[in-house]
Design brief:
five-stranded parallel beta sheet, Elongation Factor Tu (Ef-tu), domain 3
Length: about 350
């Protein structure tokens, strides 16, 4: 490959991004490691300094440049404030989707291109083939679900070096490269909520009070500590959350029927704010949809209307407003939208 091609790699201090940088350096690219400084709350101690040190050590080991990019304001506005706003409204957002759109492929991408980059790379388990976004080869680690808001015109300038690998392969490569991150545990969730309960984090920003939990018949079966803290499909009091009334501060639960379906499950879901990173769905064609991360793929059809997009499922689905619904044509992720 042309050694003059410049690539900026987002380094989190984890094994996936570290190996991505090593593979690109080995392939002859001019590589710069970029550590993103994001906002963290003052009531929670985050280990970002340790992650930054690991990223710096990886760069030193590989003999590549290290750069720290401060995107605290952008992260607070586009990821944290958005997340809090959605929960307050009774919806369940995907902050990782927002982070990819506004931070990794927003602020970082823009800065990299302004500084002469040919490519931006990350350690995501996803692939780009013929300018189309595809699922990662490791089905247990596939992260394409979180990438549907990437702009189509960005694809030719994005690299996912480990997207075609399995996680054990990546760890073995890290050992071969002598990287300090080889045995580092995977991060869980966002930095500032990774080791603290989401409900605990939200309680600092959303003032909730106890309310009634009702069953499908309307009978009171228990009490909750704030309707905003619960997600459709979540386990609660031996059942599953199937509805919320934010004005009444009530949560409704249900048990699965003999077919394994929950009350209020539906075969039709409307999505908004759509982005088709790999192309628009075709009328009448069957596709696969994922309604939340790690949820099984479901057969569906997509109907494009003037003011909305309707997803019709073969089997009833229990969906959470605010979550991302993504559409696949085989392994290709066409795009997606937000569940209304």
């Amino acid at each position: 490959m042309n050694k003059k091609l410049k690539v900026f790699v987002g380094l989190s201090g984890g094994v996936d991004s570290s190996v991505s940088a090593a593979l690109l350096k080995e392939s002859g690219y001019e590589v710069t490691g970029v550590f993103i400084r994001v906002w963290t709350p003052d009531f929670f101690i985050c280990n970002w300094k340790d992650d930054r040190l690991d990223a710096m050590r990886v760069c030193a080991k590989l003999g590549i440049q290290f750069h720290e990019l401060n995107l605290e304001k952008e992260y607070k506005k586009e990821v944290v404030d958005y997340m809090i706003r959605e929960y307050k409204a009774g919806r369940t957002p995907n902050p990782d989707v927002a982070c990819n759109r506004f931070i990794k492929f927003g602020g970082v991408y823009k800065w990299a291109m302004e500084n002469g980059a040919n490519f931006v790379a990350t350690g995501h388990y996803s692939r780009i083939e013929k300018n189309k976004l595809s699922a990662g080869s490791d089905t247990n680690k596939d992260q394409s679900y979180f990438l549907w808001q990437i702009k189509r015109e960005q694809l030719p300038h994005i690299l996912f070096p480990v997207g075609g690998m399995k996680k054990p392969e990546v760890r073995e490569l890290a050992k071969d490269f002598g990287l300090i991150t080889a045995d580092k545990k995977d991060s869980q969730g966002l930095c500032f909520v990774g080791k603290v309960d989401m409900k605990e984090f939200l309680s600092h920003y959303i003032k909730q009070k106890n309310g009634e939990v009702r069953n499908q018949k309307g009978d009171i079966v228990g009490e909750h500590d704030g309707a905003a803290f619960y997600t459709i499909g979540e386990r609660l009091l031996g059942g599953y959350v199937v509805g919320k009334d934010m004005k009444k501060n009530e949560v409704v639960i249900s048990n699965k029927n003999a077919a394994g379906e929950l009350a209020r499950a539906t075969t039709e879901v409307t999505i908004k704010d759509c982005n088709w990173v790999s192309g628009m769905p075709e009328k009448g064609k069957e596709y696969l949809a994922r309604t939340r991360y790690r949820a099984p793929l479901q057969n569906c059809k997509v109907t494009l209307r003037h003011d909305r997009i309707l997803i019709s499922f073969e089997k009833p689905q229990t969906v959470a407003p605010g979550q991302s619904l993504v559409i696949y044509g085989g392994e290709i992720l066409l795009g997606g939208g937000i569940i209304k």
